[in-house]
Amino acid sequence: MRIGELAELAGVTIRTIRYYHQARVLPEPPRRSNGYRDYTVDHLVAVLRINQLTSSGLSLAQAGAVAADSASATTDEALDEVDRALAARIAALTEQRERLARARAGHHVGLSRVAAALSLTSTDVPTAILLAHLYKDHPQIDLLADALLEPKLRSALVSTQERFDAIDETSTDSELEELTLWVRSLLTEFTGDLPPLTEEQSQLILNLVERDLNDRQKELVRRQE
């Protein structure tokens, strides 16, 4: 049979057959006197096996080797290797699904658990993402996330955020000082075990925090430095 017939019977394209030849996973048949290659049913079976093996997770090179000699020890090793790789992928995908489920349940899709804990409003999200990244390797950050997600503290933080949002040019110095002391006490209690950020990191955070604030809010933020 010619290459077009082989491709049609195998359910692939002629380009695929030629690619298999180039990859040396499918032997090329000799040419006949008219210049055309003459494929046999063995080539058809080989193509079908290669397709089945690649669909099972083998690389094209592994599939070609297995199709060429399915009874060798090398074949068993290749299959074992693929099985281990598939098991690892399944485990990784399972973990991803679990993270996604937790994110959906906590209404923080697209955020890590720590970033979700650090954000109270949509405007907090960029800052929370950056802070979670800067502290991602610190063992205390998960404990901080646990504390910030505790309902009673969460309620207090939301109340504090509302007080902060209400600050404008009419806010008195005493109001700012009272809120400054309250925020400072919270920061000391819950971030005291975290190492200080570098000057460059602090400036990045400050740039994000101050981006949408009025002057009086910026003044309060800078009092925390």
TrEMBL record:
<dbReference type="InterPro" id="IPR047057">
    <property type="entry name" value="MerR_fam"/>
</dbReference>
<dbReference type="Pfam" id="PF13411">
    <property type="entry name" value="MerR_1"/>
</dbReference>
<dbReference type="InterPro" id="IPR000551">
    <property type="entry name" value="MerR-type_HTH_dom"/>
</dbReference>
<dbReference type="GO" id="GO:0003677">
    <property type="term" value="F:DNA binding"/>
</dbReference>
<dbReference type="GO" id="GO:0003700">
    <property type="term" value="F:DNA-binding transcription factor activity"/>
</dbReference>
<dbReference type="InterPro" id="IPR009061">
    <property type="entry name" value="DNA-bd_dom_put_sf"/>
</dbReference>
<feature type="domain" description="HTH merR-type">
    <location>
        <begin position="1"/>
        <end position="69"/>
    </location>
</feature>
<keyword id="KW-0238">DNA-binding</keyword>
<protein>
    <submittedName>
        <fullName>MerR family transcriptional regulator</fullName>
    </submittedName>
</protein>
